[in-house]
Amino acid sequence: MSTGWSIFVILLVVVNLVGCAWLLFANRNVKIQAQDKGRGTGHDFDGIEELNNPLPAWWTWLFIATLVFGVAYFILYPGMGNFAGLLGWTSSNQHQAEVGRADEKYGPIFAGYFAMPVEDLLEEERALSMGSRIFANNCATCHGSDARGGKGFPNLTDGDWLWGGDPETIKQTITNGRMGLMVPFGDVLGDDETIGDVVEYVLSLSGRDHDAARAAKGETQFAAICSACHLASGEGLQALGAPNLTDDVWLHGGRRSDIDHAIRKGLDNRMPAHDAFLNPEQIHLVTAYVYSLSGGER
Fold first, then answer.
1. Residue 222 gets which letter from DSSP?
2. What's the CATH class of domain 181-271?
3. pLDDT tens digit string along 267-292?
4. Looking at the domain covering 115-177+272-293, what would its CATH class be?
């Protein structure tokens, strides 16, 4: 904060404290004649009349205590511009202290589980419970509290993996994130008829209702353009995160309109890297939890 703003904030605080004190004591010193006590002041609102009575003593002392507390607070804690307070407290310092106490308490537990292979953690109920809580705090926003995801967010319980479902790959996905990109092919394929043929062929790959004649024509375009990522079989190249089109699991929707939109406009699906806010021990536990959701075996 600049010096000018700091001076402004200090003056604002001091003026408010002094003003409140003056208002309290100035009104306390007003003398009310005995014959006027209990009489109406002429102020009436909704049938409630204000009486001419002095402020109760306990109420006055409560206001005084509040003023004293305010002065003490601004001496001990930051609030007066650039003055840091005699205690030197900051929210960052408090956070670091709390993190330090948590690390001291839970660090050995995390370290013990970190030393165990993910497969072995499947038998550790406490470890999976810890992993589930970390998942709930950091992953459920996209994948859902039940990890079943939604449109554009993978279901982690069905055993269908874009990048691979072994523990090491899951850990790499959580740590570094993923970028799933499908470029738009609307201009490449050209007219609506051709795009529609490819849509019918994609539907046929998973055994869904389709127009066989159009699918036969779309197969040629698919082999020439789409097979580079999805392979000629449609099973997808896992190294690129290209979806398997033969299993009837649709991340972005499996309706004709959804497939048509994906081919025309492309898709851009990103998962952020979590190593910025989860340490390796926490990622290890989340990996074990996610691995367990899909029926991971030893």
1. I
2. mainly alpha
3. 998 999 999 999 999 999 999 999 99
4. mainly alpha
